[in-house]
Amino acid sequence: MEILYHSTRDKNIKLTASQAILQGLAEDGGLFVPEKMPVLDKSIEELKGMDYRQTAYEVMKLFFTDYTEDELKNCIAKAYDEKFDCEEIAPIAAAGGAYYLELFHGATIAFKDMALSILPHLMTTAAKKNALKEEIVILTATSGDTGKAALAGFADVPGTRIMVFYPKNGVSAVQERQMVTQRGSNVRVVGITGNFDDAQTGVKQIFNDAEMKEELKQKGFVFSSANSINIGRLIPQVVYYVYAYTTLLRSGRIHDKEAINVCVPTGNFGNILAAFYAKQLGIPIAKLICASNKNRVLTDFFASGTYDKLHERNEANGSFDSERSFVLTGSPSMDILISSNLERLIWQIAGCDEEKNAALMKELNAKGSYAISDDMKEKLADFSYGYASEEDTAEKIRSLYADCSYVIDPHTAVAGMVYDRYRKESGDETPTVIASTASPYKFARTVLCAIDPEYGKLGDMELIDKLQEVSKVDIPQAIEDIRSAPVLHDIVCETADMPREVREFLK
Hints:
Blueprint: E1 5-7, E2 10-15, H1 17-23, E3 32-34, H2 44-48, H3 52-63, H4 69-79, E4 92-95, E5 98-102, H5 113-116, H6 119-129, E6 135-141, H7 145-154, E7 160-167, H8 173-180, E8 187-192, H9 196-207, H10 210-218, E9 221-224, H11 231-250, E10 260-265, H12 270-281, E11 285-292, H13 297-304, E12 306-308, E13 311-312, E14 322-323, H14 342-349, H15 354-367, E15 369-371, H16 374-378, E16 383-387, H17 390-404, H18 410-426, E17 432-436, H19 444-451, H20 460-471, H21 477-482, E18 491-493, H22 498-506
Parallel strand pairs: 5-17, 6-7, 6-9, 7-8, 8-18, 10-11, 10-17, 11-16
Antiparallel strand pairs: 1-2, 1-3, 4-5, 12-15, 13-14
């Protein structure tokens, strides 16, 4: 069955998977979605016997239907190789009454590796398939992890250039050092004097600048994206939820046809949307638990049916009567108030009605909020939600270590705390997978200070050594690589100057 893609705001222009991957963002500002959702054509019993690479093929072939079997398997083989430090690619650890799906065993020790290891290969294959003559320019905004994973994936890939914008004071020390030390003749990293939402908005504006796109096309360049707005980023994330289920089944932790819950720490909504897609494929997922940090715009949305990026919901009376402020937290990859991927869910619960979705997105742009209808709210019954404060996050890191000697990063701790509350309040004892999105080594200071505030006296690299002692987990190569690496990127600009920096990079 061939699957074509169209914008969430206009279904009239349909693209193949490879064309949608190349374009990244639809020209009308919408996101590409499959015109129909496929279902697994292999039984769970068959999938149970497959390794990660085989599972990836069975999932991706359903969505990327214009790739040949050889093309897709070649992309998968190149992506999920020795860059990952364990054969399982995405192992599961049991701790504290939940199953932690470790998505940080790739080259940059964050879950973004799971998709960004394969996106460059999907994209360069798509360029050949579509006889693309222009050089592909990847523009990406990052809240910390996407940037490094994208840089590592595209560095020195022929026919591509990549430019990453990040909030200068809004990522961890390790996240920043990973990016600014990135080698590659085709890479550029720029800090902005703003937050992630500013960076993401700036990138979207460049994508939607028809005059600039035409100017650069005349010079032999075409834009694309490595953010999860790109369908080539989103679909590979579906794989690890399928694999998590079959892993639990294979190990005897769940029985045949038993449902699981999935709890995901998320800001841009892509990671939990991938779990939603896995459920639609046929994986027995009961509840999808959306976990936010103090930037709780998604929690407020699920609680009320109103998405408001400017005002915060009063939990006592349900009204949006106080100004929402952007908060820098110890889980910076979730410090987001504009959750781009939520649009794909809105489109779907609107009955796949692109006009209704477009009207809501127009309302968001015009006044900073929109409210969904009651019938749309009813379609969110599979979702639960919650948020964790900085104190909650630190307590989860501390208690899980004290009880289980298992160390988690702050993003995972947000999900862990939200799940603990959900379980207590609902009484739901369904086996639950928590998406563990980053290695604690990326956030050594936050993690160790949660365990014992005395560790705060140590320097950044001293903390790395102390974390090895505490966690009994070897220091990842990604951390060793940046200990003495020189800073290669030191540009900082205002958000308004992002187009100028793009032109400078491309000369």
